[in-house]
Amino acid sequence: MSQSLRLAFFTGSVAVGVGMMSPASYAEETNDDKPMGRVEITGSNIKRTQQEGPASTQILTRKDIQQSGKTSVADVVRSLSADNNGSISGSFTNGFAGSASGVSLRGLSVNSTLVLINGRRTAPYGLGDDGQRSFVDLNSIPLGAVDRIEVLKDGASAIYGSDAIAGVVNIILRETYEGKTISGSLGTSGHGDGTLRSVSGTFGFGNLEDDKYNYFFSIDAKQSNAIWQKDRPEYLGQADARPWGGRDQRAGATTSSNTGGNSLVGTVRPVDAAGNTIPGRGIQNLPGCAYIDRGTSINSGGGCLWDPIKGGYQTVQPETQNINLFGRGTLKISGDMQAYAEAGLFNSQAKTLTTPSALTGAGFDLINQRVFDTGTGPNQLLLPIGHPDNPFSDARARPRWVDPNRPRTSDLDTTVTRLLVGVKGTSFGWDYDSGILYAQSKTERTQNGYYRSSALQTAINNGSFRIGQAGALNSAQTLGFVSPELKNSATTKLALWDFKGTREFGRLPGGPIGIAIGGELRHESTDSEATPFTNINDIVGLGYASARASRNISSLYTELALPVIKQLEFQLALRTDQYSDFGNSTTPKIGFKFTPIPQLAFRGTYAEGFRAPGPAESGDSAVSAYTTYNRDPVRCPVTNLSADCTDGKNVGAITVGNKNLKPEKSQSYSLGFILEPIKNTSISVDYWRIVRKNEITGSDADSIIADPSLFPDATVVRGEPTADFPGLVGPILLVKAPYINAGQTRTSGVDIDMRSRFDLNSYGRITTGLTVSQMFEFKRTTNGVTQNFVGTHGDKNLSGNGGTPRTRASASVAWDRGPFNVTTSLNYVSGIEDKNQAGGPCLDLDPVTKNPLMGCRVASFTTVDLFGRWDVTKQWQVTAAVANLFDRLAPLDVQTYGRVNYNPSLHQSGAVGRFFTLGARYTF
Questions:
Q1: Which of 126, 616, 722, 806 could form a disulfide with 547 if both were Cys (CB 3.0 to 4.6 A apart)?
Q2: What is the enclosing helix (H) or strand (E) of 60?
Q3: What spatial distance separates the first Cα and last Cα of the chain, rounded to whole Å?
């Protein structure tokens, strides 16, 4: 699903997170205050009679999820206050992993957050984030089958595996269900667009105790219409944000210094026999700008300005269709043994588009190991003398043009298959569970609107391809030749067998000792095809991404729960992983919980983590993309030209796989307390700190250009010297570098969770909650240089350039009385400086005055959501929700490249606007 409903979660989730009040959360589901039985909670394999252990775990029950008003797992998880920079929004359709959605706890990226289904892994999305980072697409998990979501906020590599450095999100699906339920919902924005239609049903048969079997299946189907950004007000609805303190992001301008961008009518510039510009002869704009209805106007230099938002090339959310099928069967073989099987099938279809393609670009030909630049130099695209669009009778012409009627489109069709069979029970005093799992994720992508450079030059040379006049002069045959349909696919597979056993043995003064032992054999493979012709850089403006790798992993782990005395418990865990391509790792974890009095408990953990390089980082892989860099340190001091000294210039960045990479390692710490000052009120405060070393990073063009000596394996590729400075090296075309172990990141902060419940007798019950994640530092050290990203727009190299807000918070008030529930939620994201690092220069300056735009700051963002439920009868339930109740507009952000003028990673609901949803459920 797209991020059309960015409500914050509530109520009850805080209770479980803080621990001492947590049993009440389950009691609310059944109005039954009896003590819980032994359960297994994420963060430990040992069953307990309490829901909280030494680690901070947040649990969102079915009731919490329903009262949030959200309609997808992605919406629920990405609203967590612990989610931060590197999180992937489904609305960021132009990225390498377009239309997928991923969570990044603590801002440590999606590949350091482990997403599980029922405590087991599943296949990651076929297309890596930025072509590098593997992650599970949250959209592929059926919300209707979810029983609860458990979030472990500290390092858990010793419990679950190497890639749990930042924490774990465990999606717990129902194990049994008896009955029949159908539901549907209809939503639309206050602007009358983005219509969301949802239908689901769950059907279960058999009582496990009486019939010795239970099986159920569920179906979720959703269809979401596109939201066009041009239909939003103020700076959201146009690219020129200067009236609101931003900058003009329209394209096609011809400047006073006689440079011209790609326009909808085209520009031509004469060149000499060597392909160099001719002094005294400048750019000529072709006619017709006034006749193109794409938000066009003519600027002072005569260029045809066009607006990518008004022109209809930008969406707030894409058109999507999802269907999710899930089934589970359980057979009670005996009183002490059950066999079970699960099957899941998910399909998602998304239609995305962006601005039309330019005619030229620079990149790296991986096959021939050379830079190929069709914009300038010996390989540049030129109109020959006599071409119908070349007005110069004595010179060839350098063209610039985009076809207004041919946006670049990408259709993605993703299918995820998951099959599981297993057995669990009790034998010889041990509770055991063992299963065999196979999961596959396959994404097929079809792209249109991109030019093939070699075909384009052929068609221009013979005069069959024309520029200008809105592309009306090009035949379908010519367009098919120069702009072929591009198809590629990406497949990931996961096969595993696992087992675990737990029991109690012996006693300490505080109670019986708990032990868990387990193991896993796992095979992972990735086969991500590159888009055709990108390996030779023959597709204008489209980067290369490909990965192919496989490996085997075997794991053993053990865990102890040691109740030394009644008030003090220790948790000890140790895991060893054997990788077929990266050797061994051993990761320990230790935790404690001290309860001196029933109203107060102290807890803490220390854990070590290990993340082996992913298939895109160490396999037969490469990524070719585009990024930005600031001033050219070699040319700028000599030329003082804006082309060499202006910040934010585009440059190609090539990153190739490196088989010599070392695994990332981490150390994480947490320390906090849980306080229940009065009955039905609880508070928890947890300090956390994570240090990740040997970090694997890609090509950071800005840092490499600033000081190439710090990156001996990197290459800065430059073009030919310019005619005005023939003795000076040419302009930068691209940067090529392998993935490297660059340094370390230190991040720390505090989580605050509070919850209260007040009984009003005949007037019902009020439940309040508050969660706050406050980040103190996010410091990355590379080659001895330390950058602090917290509270800034950095790290700008991460997907979508979303920024690292210092504070994220959610608060709620819920009123329950009989069949009625009303919940109000408030969601807050702090502002960020428009800088890549604390104390650094402003990223966006006024081109004339050089003053910082927007005061060098992106504003904070607060929204209020409303949810209501009415149980009309025992069978009928009606719900209503309003997201972004006061229709708050997303803050202006001209730095992010996830969208124009707003940040979809942080402020998506402010672009969607007020959103209404009505739903009904009928239980047979």
A1: 616
A2: strand 57-61
A3: 28
Question: In the 3-class helix/strand/coil scheme, how is 292-331 assigned residue by residue?
Answer: CCCCCEECCCCCEEECCCCCCCCEEECEEEEEEEEEEEEE
Helices (H), 46-126: 62-68, 73-78
Q: How far is CA 465 from the centre of its chain?
A: 39
Handedness of CA 814, 815, 820, 822 (dihedral sign): negative
Q: What are phi and psi of 36, to 5 degrees?
A: -75, 155
Q: How far apart are CA 841 and CA 852, in angstroms?
A: 9
Facing residues of 362 across strands? 373
What's the pLDDT score for residue 294?
81
Rounded Cα distance, 2 and 412, in Å: 14
Report pLDDT digits (tens) over 459-508.
999 999 999 876 788 999 999 999 999 999 999 999 999 999 999 999 99
Q: Please, which residues bridge with residue 201 across strands?
A: 182, 219
Closest CA to 462 of 361, 388, 554: 388
For residue range 677-687, what is the model confidence (pLDDT) as tens digits? Answer: 998 999 999 99
Residue 791: strand, helix, or coil: coil
Place of tokens 């300005």: 305
Would you say residue 519 has pLDDT above 50? yes
Radius of gyration of the chain (CA): 29
CA distance to 131, 134, 702, per residue, from 85 (Å) = 17, 16, 19
Q: How far apart are the C-alpha atoms of 856 and 646, rounded to whole Å?
A: 17
Contact 487, 444 (CB under 8 A): yes
Compute the Cα dihedral for 831, 836, 837, 838 and give only its sign. negative
One-letter identity of residue 893 = D
Which two structure tokens, joined as six digits, stand for 456? 């384009």
Close Cβ partners of 760 (under 8 Å, ≥ 6 residues apart): 766
Cα-to-chain-centroid distance, residue 645? 33
Cis ω on the peptide bond leading into residue 751 (within 30° of 0)? no
**Collapsed DSSP state (helix, strand, coil) of residue 103:** coil
For the sheet with 396-400, list strands across it. Answer: 284-285, 267-271, 396-400
Give the closest residue to 447 by CA, choosing from 349, 351, 363, 358. 351
DSSP 154: S
In angstroms, the Cα distances linking 572 to 156, 158, 272, 584 are: 12, 9, 75, 20
Task: Compare 7 and 538 and report the one with higher pLDDT.
Answer: 538
Inter-residue contact 549 to 523 (CB < 8 Å): no
Distance from C-alpha of 715 to C-alpha of 457, rounded to nearest angstrom: 29
**Token pair of 687 as six digits:** 């300090």
User: For 183, what's the count of Cα atoms within 13 Å in the CB-facing half-sphere?
Assistant: 24
Closest CA relative to residue 141, chosen from 121, 111, 161: 121
> Rounded CA gap, 34 and 489, in Å?
52
CA nearest neighbour of 672 among 750, 595, 597, 599? 750
Determine the Cα–Cα distance for residues 906 and 86; give it in Å rounded to an integer.
11
Question: Each residue of 110-158: pLDDT tens digit?
Answer: 888 999 999 899 999 988 877 778 889 988 887 878 889 998 888 767 8
Helices marked H in 691-821: 701-706
With contact defined as beta carbons under 8 Å apart, do 323 and 220 qualify?
yes
The Cα–Cα gap between 835 and 842 comes to: 5
85: helix, coil or strand?
Answer: coil
- Tell me what pLDDT residue 2 has: 31
Do residues 577 and 163 make contact, with C-beta atoms less than 8 angstroms apart? no
Asked whether 322 and 222 are in contact (CB, 8 A), the reply is yes
Beta bridge pairs of residue 402: none
d(CA 891, CA 74): 22
Nearest Cα to Cα of residue 753 among 767, 766, 770: 770
CA distance 69 to 783: 46
Q: What are phi and psi of 866, to 5 degrees?
A: -130, 135
